[in-house]
Structure formats: structure tokens, C-alpha cells
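Weekly modeling sync, notes
Attendees: S.R. (lead), two postdocs, one rotation student

Agenda item 3: backlog of single-chain predictions. S.R. asked that every request posted to the team notebook include the full sequence so nobody has to chase files. The rotation student volunteered to paste the first one in as an example of the format we agreed on. Action items at the bottom.

Example entry:
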Amino acid sequence: MIQHRCNVCLDYIIIAVEGSITNSEDANNLYALIKEQSKNGIKKVIIDLKKVNYISSIIVGFLIKINDELNNISGVIVLCNVQQAVLELLKITKVNLILQIFENQEKAVEYLSNL
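Predicted structure, as returned to the notebook:
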């Protein structure tokens, strides 16, 4: 099971995830959190993966699904602080071509602020 911190700021949310993200329960927990926030009008999501050293293919599918859903409501999801091993998986699966990936939270927030 993963741990996360959630900070709602102005019109975006930062979800800082800790631990490996490996199963459908992890994906469902993140999905529910993001869906709840989108119902409250938050359509911009930053997922901070600084403390995540592994994600499974289930999570890759989740990222694509939530990206599509947010795009349908004029929202966006971005990643930041992605560890090298996770970044390699995102490149292999070409998710890096779908999602914006930033080296830190500050750059992710700057990007969202300009949307």
C-alpha cells in the first residue's frame, strides 16, 4: 500500500506519493482521490514521485486513464521528481510522450500556472 500527502492549492492539487506503486488497490486509491478533487472543481493534478522507486504496468494504465478523463473536462495531470528507474519505464511505455514530466514541483506548478 502506498502513502500520499495531498495539498490543494488554488486551482491544482499536488499528490506526493511514497513507496512502490504496484497494484490495483494503489491505483484505485489515487483514482478516487483525483476524482473527488475533480468533482470539487480541481482539474489540474501534479503527482510528485520523488519517493517512488517503482511503478507497475497497472499504474501506467492508470496514468493514461486519468489523463484521458481529465482531458475530457479540460484538465491536466503532470508528473514531477520522477526517479530514474520509473522514468525509464515511462519512456519504454511511451507515457512520457503523453504526460508532461518535470524535474521538480516548482517547474510543474509554473507550467500549470500558465495554462
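Discussion: group reviewed the output briefly. The domain at 3-113 is CATH 3.30.750.24 (Transcription Regulator spoIIAA).
Action items: rotation student to repeat for the remaining queue; S.R. to check formatting next week.
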